Each structure stands twice: as structure tokens, then as C-alpha cells.
Amino acid sequence: MIAIFDYGAGNLRSVQNGLDAIGCDYTLVRDPDGLRQADKIILPGVGHFGQMVRALDELGVRETLLERIHADIPFFGICLGMQALFESSEEAPEVRGLGLFPGTVRRFSEGIRVPHMGWDQCESKTGQSPYYYFAHSYYVPEVSRLAAEVCTYGVRFIASLQHGKVFGTQYHPEKSAAAGQEVLKSFATC
After folding, report:
1. Active-site residue, from 116, 149, 151, 172
2. Pairing relation of β-strands 40-43 and 75-78?
3. Of 80, 98, 105, 173, which residue has the fewest beta carbons closer than 10 angstroms?
4. Is 172 known to be catalytic?
5. For 59-76, what is the mean pLDDT?
6. Is 136 a catalytic residue?
7. Catalytic residue among 116, 136, 149, 174
8. What is the domain class of 2-105+159-188 according to CATH?
């Protein structure tokens, strides 16, 4: 069963709708026990890096999330959920991310309209160039060993990543029509 971790993210219902659209069973969890029972975990995210990570810490799930990821339980971080996998973010430099991957999430530079919102095309390692829906002001700089897809919006950044059974998207697959449904199906069947 896929567990969607509910820490109060604004896109929780749209993630549920996305999974409903592909006929996927899921449950909502809010504690370490729920995460321990999950076969797969989705961490959705909308909002502020510091607020999200503090919520994970207040709910006492930081270590459980990392334990499950290290135990090769498939994990999917969406938007801010992907950014949380890194060490830190310029959005809340005083807050430590989950630190699964090294690096700092950066803010788009001045002169670029933020948030980066709407449909944009991504470059995939498979040569495909799908369009996905984005809504973000911070990005993960391109790291070739992690990037499955990249996007360019002033700078090149990771649009999606895969490392073992850890997946993440900066875009919102649950709002990205057929292309996003394919991403969700891929995770559901991994």
C-alpha cells in the first residue's frame, strides 16, 4: 500500500486525486507507525521549506522516513517533498533538511519572474521532452548523477530525480495531465 504522508501540505488532496485517477490504492499517514507499515511512501509538498521540515520534526518522523528510505522502501518526494531530501535551502538556511543528498536548494536569481508557475518542457535522459506543471520559487541545481529530467528556467535545474528507489519531482505530476499520470503509474508499479 502507498502511504501519503499528511503533514498538512496544500497539495494533499490533488495527490489523492492523481492516484485516484490511475486507480491506485493509498492511505494517509501522520506518524512513524504509519510510515513503518507502508510499502511505498509519497511526501507531497507545497509551501515553505522550513515550515515543512519543522512539521516533520514535530510529528517525529524524520528518522523513520530516513530508515524507510535506507531500507529500500520506494519513496517519492513531490515539489517541496523532493527539496526536503537535500541538506538545506536558501529559503530557510537555519533549518536542516533530511540530508539524504548533499547540496543546497537555491532561489531563482533576481530578474527571473518567480514563482516559476505553469507548464514547462523538460529534457529527459530518454530523449523525450514532456511538459509538466510547475509552481516553485526555489530549485535543486542540476546534479547529473541524480537528474532523470532537467528543466531550464533562467538556470538548469533538476525537474525529476531518481537514485535507487528514491524518486522526486520538482513539478507536480498530480497536476500534469497524462504525462503526470505516467509518472505516478511508474512509481505505483516500481
Report:
1. 172
2. parallel
3. 98
4. yes
5. 97
6. no
7. 174
8. alpha beta
Q: What is the DSSP track for 19-76?
A: HHHTT--EEEE-SHHHHHH-SEEEE---S-HHHHHHHHHHTT-HHHHHHHHHTT--EE
11-17 LR contacts (CB < 8 Å, sep 24+): 11/44, 11/45, 11/46, 11/78, 11/79, 11/172, 11/174, 11/175, 12/44, 14/172, 14/174, 14/175, 15/42, 15/44, 15/78, 15/174, 17/174
Full-prediction pTM beyond 0.90? Answer: yes
Residue 178's closest CA among 4, 21, 11, 15? 21
Active site residue 79: yes
Choosing from 79, 91, 122, 149, the catalytic residue is 79
Give the position of cell 505505483. 188
pLDDT (average), residues 80-109:
96
For 12-49, the pLDDT digits (tens) are: 899 999 999 999 999 999 999 999 999 999 999 888 99
Confidence of residue 127 (pLDDT cuts 50, 70, 90): confident
Q: What tens digit of pLDDT does each residue of 130-157 get?
A: 999 999 999 999 887 889 999 999 999 9
